[in-house]
């Protein structure tokens, strides 16, 4: 087991966004969390990754209690994260975004004798090749298509050398072609690097094509958990989605 979430709760001004959620994820597992808009998916991710402080409960990662840790501390333990909205440096080139992420992760200080351009050049180029952006390395990140920006964000997450990735709506806003391409390379990278993957997603075709296990969140609570076909046939899931899951 790589991640254990135990009875996690979070409320905002009396509204219970996450209400007693408990689940675990095994190493190298590809697991999805789905649910209607407002179900608490992004809030749950923020609690797990230290971007929000939980009200109650406990989160364990790789045998370490990370409940009270800050986001950067959790990242250094090996948990990478992408966000629903692209989280890149739009005024840096694609290459510079990856290079900056490597510099931050490895704690490399700047000095007056070594040009910054020489730092982690090979490693940056290797990550860009993995995420399919090697031909765009010198382009300004803000000028990339939305799909390429999401691929860059994944590259930034990979620069932290994670053993687990949490992806929040990785195909949000993408065309059908971009979605298919993104899901293909996310699955490929997860397999090649032996990563554990936990992701939220609104596109049910994406969820059922890549997931090994699915958790369904509704009004801050898990109402179903199981293999894709088991979740697909669950009447509570069908009711929560008003027919969206077929």
Label this structure with key terms:
single chain, 246 residues, alpha/beta, six-stranded mixed sheet, four-stranded antiparallel sheet, 9 helices, 24% strand
Write up this protein:
This protein is an alpha/beta fold and 246 residues long. The strands form two sheets. Strands 6-7-8-3-9-10 form a six-stranded mixed β-sheet, with helices on both faces. A four-stranded antiparallel β-sheet has the order 2-1-4-5, with helices on one face. It contains nine helices and ten strands. Strand 1 and strand 2 (15-25) form a beta hairpin.
In terms of topology, how is this protein built?
Layout: E1 3-12, E2 15-25, E3 30-34, H1 41-48, E4 56-61, E5 64-65, H2 71-76, E6 79-82, H3 94-106, H4 121-130, H5 146-159, E7 164-168, H6 176-193, E8 196-200, H7 204-210, E9 213-218, E10 221-226, H8 228-232, H9 235-240
Parallel strand pairs: 3-8, 3-9, 6-7, 7-8
Antiparallel strand pairs: 1-2, 1-4, 4-5, 9-10
Helix pairs in contact: 3-4, 3-5, 4-5
Amount of beta strand: 15-25%
Counted by DSSP, the helix tally is 9
Strand order of the largest sheet: 6-7-8-3-9-10
Q: Order of helices and strands, N to C?
A: EEEHEEHEHHHEHEHEEHH
Question: How many DSSP E strands?
Answer: 10
Mean pLDDT: 86
**What is the 3D form?**
globular
Rounded to the nearest angstrom, the distance between the terminal CA atoms is 31 Å
- The portion of residues assigned to helices is 25-40%
Gyration radius, rounded: 18 Å
State the major sheet. 6 strands, mixed
Which blocks of ≥5 consecutive residues have pLDDT under 50? 110-115
Strand-pairing-aware structural class: alpha/beta
């Amino acid at each position: 087991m790589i991640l254990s979430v135990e009875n996690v709760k979070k409320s905002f001004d009396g509204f219970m966004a996450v209400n007693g959620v408990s689940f675990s994820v095994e190493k190298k597992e590809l697991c999805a969390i789905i649910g209607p808009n407002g179900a608490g998916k992004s809030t749950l991710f923020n609690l797990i990754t230290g971007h929000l402080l939980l009200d109650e409960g406990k989160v364990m990662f790789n045998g370490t209690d990370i409940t009270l840790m800050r986001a950067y501390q959790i990242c250094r333990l090996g948990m990478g994260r992408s966000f629903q909205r692209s989280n890149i440096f739009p005024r840096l080139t694609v290459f510079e975004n990856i290079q900056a992420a490597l510099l931050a992760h490895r704690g490399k200080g700047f000095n007056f004798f070594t040009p910054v351009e020489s730092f982690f050049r090979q490693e940056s180029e290797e990550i860009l090749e993995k995420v399919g952006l090697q031909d765009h390395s010198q382009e300004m990140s803000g000028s990339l298509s939305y799909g390429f920006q999401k691929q860059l964000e994944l590259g930034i997450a990979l620069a932290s050398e994670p053993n687990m990735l949490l992806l929040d709506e990785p195909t949000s806003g993408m065309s059908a072609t971009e979605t298919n391409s993104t899901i293909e390379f996310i699955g490929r990278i997860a397999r090649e690097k032996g990563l554990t993957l936990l992701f939220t997603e609104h596109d049910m075709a994406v969820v059922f094509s890549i997931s090994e296990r699915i958790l369904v969140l509704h009004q801050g609570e898990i109402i179903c958990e199981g293999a894709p076909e088991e979740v697909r046939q669950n009447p509570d899931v069908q009711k929560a989605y008003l027919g969206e899951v077929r």
